[in-house]
Amino acid sequence: KESKETPKTQKPKEKTKEKPESSKKHKGKKETKEKDGADASEPNEESKYNSFNKFAKLCEVIATMSKYSDKSAAVKMFISRDDYDGDMLTLVRLLLPGVDQRVYNIKEKQIIKHFATIFDLPPEDLLNEYKNDGDVSKVIRDAMEKNNLSRVTKGNWSIEKASRIVVDRWLNKLTELTKDDEQIAHLKFAAKRMSPLELQYLLRLVMKDLRINAGVKHILDGLNSCAYEAFQSCRDLAEIVDRAKKGQFGDIAITMEVGIRLGTPVLPMLVSYIIRAMYREHIAQR
Description:
The chain has 2 domains: 46-223, DNA ligase i, domain 1 (Orthogonal Bundle), CATH 1.10.3260.10; 224-285, no CATH class. 65% of the residues lie in helices and 0% in strands. The chain contains 15 helices and no strands. It has helices spanning 2-35, 52-64, 68-79, 88-95, 108-119, 123-133, 136-146, 167-175, 180-193, 196-206, 216-220, 227-234, 237-246, 252-262, 268-285. It is elongated, with a radius of gyration of 26 Å. The relative contact order is 0.12. Belongs to the ATP-dependent DNA ligase family.
């Protein structure tokens, strides 16, 4: 009896010891995967329209358009494709960096010095290029391409918040960094995982100027011809994008009602116009 009982008592002990060890190993694998999740070679499983590479190329297209109406048309074509399933709100927010309230504690000359350190290039050369060109993002892109400093042709960065490598999250982190070594490490992380084109537009987001010569009206006109007027009254991009997706901009009175319904501040010069529009709608319904 004793010989039979001992193995029975030993087996559960062995199992209880093995389970925590295997779970620890499993957790360890998860942790390493999370740390290494920023690998540029890892495939992006999200919508292709959430790709930051596509965002950068859209900016390039908009920049080449000379007419403002064509710039709006480019935005409209991008979001009106039959298979479009991207994050429209984040897309619009990124296309309007001037509306963004985030503050980045970094200036153009600091960026030059940081990338001179990252790329091991003479800072004087980059500074001279910047003085001649005036566009720090283009200087960094040109330096990457001329010196073959990037092996990435298309990064897997996304604008979607559910992604592992998110531009928005990277920008949020940058707002917290004030020391040179912290900023250099953060910029280096992006430089290793982005193509020169993508890095150029990431830096332009930091500078809050995409250099596409398109203002709020031109971008929002790409959503709907009434979207800009509605934005002037409510200043809520989420509401504007939601209405654009639902096709709720059919009537100017309904458009101007957005600000009142939300209870958000309305521009003084629009108050009388909104009241008249609402009154006309009320009379029409009687």
